Structure formats: structure tokens, C-alpha cells
UniProtKB/TrEMBL annotation:
Gene name per UniProt: proC
One BP term from GO: L-proline biosynthetic process
Entry similarity comment: Belongs to the pyrroline-5-carboxylate reductase family.
Chain's role: Catalyzes the reduction of 1-pyrroline-5-carboxylate (PCA) to L-proline.
Keyword flag Cytoplasm: yes
Boundaries of every Pyrroline-5-carboxylate reductase catalytic N-terminal domain copy: 2-97
Binding annotation for NADP(+): I6, G7, A8, G9, H10, M11, S34, A68, V69, K70, P71
Protein name as it appears in the record: Pyrroline-5-carboxylate reductase
Organism: Liquorilactobacillus aquaticus DSM 21051
Upper taxonomic lineage: Bacteria, Bacillati, Bacillota, Bacilli, Lactobacillales
């Protein structure tokens, strides 16, 4: 199937880069357009994609259309392509934060349009991403399976209810930044005690990567794994107690709360 992108921002490029890296989609099968030709045309040339001159041209050329624009301009984009979509049977994949499938369907004034809502994170670019998926009732199982397969090539997927998308944004969409922050904090502590920033960052990042893989492969809970590393009276316990005294767990929960509130417009 041909794939089209309306919008060519960082997340759209991360998805495309991930596909190209594992040869999941041919560059000649990806059509792209955004408001700023100077940005999307250069990217298309670099990756041998097919740049087109309008959003309606994306609709015409592609079978699966990705909406990769900001929420503030989504209404304008949908109004522009509404008539074109009524005349053609296309699958619409929205990665627009905070906009439901029902809202998109109402904007398109089309009760038969196949819609899939997704929420990827930036790690799709290195094929280690996590993507939430939610489809409307019109979407066929064949098209859903095809799209799910596209995103499984970029990491893992989770079929969740739309009502849980804001929570997913916090736990997966925004959390890479929280993890980067944690790695940077660990590396700065290493610098405090004499390591170079580069060396300390590599040590911390490898520890985080290995720990994440351990959580995904070990049947025990993360807290049980904490206990496994914590020898009685040892250094790890001392560090954990210091983290809790500084409010580590509370700060993480507050970060999730704030992210969800922002995504829900509160």
C-alpha cells in the first residue's frame, strides 16, 4: 500500500526513518506534504520520498493517510480534504494529540471513513518505540492488521481504549524525556566524582537499557527486582532511601499527573 503524510514534523520523520531503517516501506511508496515546502521537500530529497504539492494530492496518491499536524491546524486540514475523502476509500491514521476519532469523523462529515488513532513515541526512529492503537468501528480487520504490522516493525504496539490515551501519553509519549533527564542526572553525579560526562553518560545509559530489558524479560515485578539488587545494609539501599527522602517516586507521579492534565487541556 502507498502511504501518505500530511505533516512532516519530528514524529512523522521518526516513523518514516524507522521504516526505512528496516526496509519495511519503500521510500518510493511514501508521499509527503506539509505547510512549509522548504522543510518537507529537503527531507523528501534526503530520504528519496515523493514530495507532493498539496494535501489533496496526498489523498489522491496514497492508500493510508497519516495526519501528522498540530491540533490547532487539524480543523483547517480536514476541511480542505473533506470532499476528496468522501469520493475515495482511504484509511486515515491520526497521530494528533488530544483529538478523538469521533471528533475527526464529525469534522470529515463521513460516517464510513476508516479511522485509526495512534500515539507513538520518539523511539520508533530506532525501532524500539511503543505505539498505542485505537480504531473506529468502520476500520476493517485487514487494514487494522496491516497498520499494526507497520508499527510492530518500529518496536511494540498496544491496543488500548481512547479514554486511556492521555495516560499512555504520560507513560510512553512523554516518558522518554523523563528517562533522558534521569540518565543525565546520573551522569552529572558521575562527573561530580571525577568521571568525564561522556563516560558517565555511557555508563548510566547502558545501565538503564539493561534494566529495561530485564523488566521486560523477567517474570518478577520491578519492585521485586529492586529487592533483588538491594543487599541488607548495602550501598543500593542507602541510595534508594536517599532518593525517597528527596521525593523520587512522588516526583514521577506528579510528572505523570501534569502530563495527563496538559493533554486533557486542564
Amino acid at each position: 500500500m502507498k502511504i501518505g503524510f500530511i505533516g512532516a514534523g519530528h514524529m512523522a520523520q521518526a516513523i518514516i526513518n524507522g521504516w526505512l531503517k528496516v526496509n519495511k516501506v519503500s521510500s518510493s511508496d511514501i508521499f509527503i506534504h506539509s505547510a512549509r515546502r522548504e522543510s518537507y521537500a529537503v527531507y523528501a530529497q534526503e530520504k528519496n520520498l515523493v514530495p507532493v504539492d498539496s494535501n489533496n494530492e496526498v489523498i489522491k496518491k496514497a492508500d493510508i493517510i497519516f495526519l501528522a499536524v498540530k491540533p490547532l491546524v487539524l480543523g483547517k486540514v480536514l476541511a480542505e480534504v473533506r470532499d476528496k475523502l468522501k469520493k475515495q476509500n482511504k484509511v486515515i491514521v491520526s497521530m494528533v494529540s488530544g483529538v478523538s476519532l469521533t471528533e475527526i469523523q464529525q469534522e470529515l462529515d463521513n460516517d464510513n471513513v476508516e479511522l485509526l488513532r495512534i500515539m507513538p513515541n520518539v523511539n520508533v526512529e530506532i525501532n524500539e518505540g511503543m505505539t498505542a492503537l485505537a480504531k473506529n468501528e468502520c476500520m476493517t480487520e485487514e487494514h487494522y492488521d496491516f497498520c499494526e504490522n507497520l508499527f510492530n516493525a518500529l518496536g511494540k504496539t498496544s491496543n488500548i481504549s481512547e479514554k486511556d490515551f492521555s495516560t499512555f501519553v504520560a507513560l510512553s509519549g512523554s516518558s522518554p524525556a523523563f528517562v533522558y533527564f534521569f540518565i543525565d542526572a546520573l551522569s552529572r553525579a558521575g562527573v561530580k566524582y571525577g568521571l568525564s560526562k561522556k563516560q558517565a553518560t555511557e555508563i548510566a545509559a547502558q545501565a538503564v537499557m539493561g534494566s529495561a530489558k530485564k523488566v521486560l524479560t523477567d517474570p518478577r515485578t520491578p519492585w521485586e527486582l529492586v529487592d533483588d539488587v538491594s543487599s541488607p545494609g548495602g550501598t543500593t539501599v542507602a541510595g534508594l532511601l536517599a532518593m525517597e527522602e528527596a521525593g523520587f517516586m512522588t516526583s514521577i507521579v506528579k510528572a505523570v499527573d501534569a502530563t495527563i492534565a496538559k493533554d486533557q487541556g486542564k
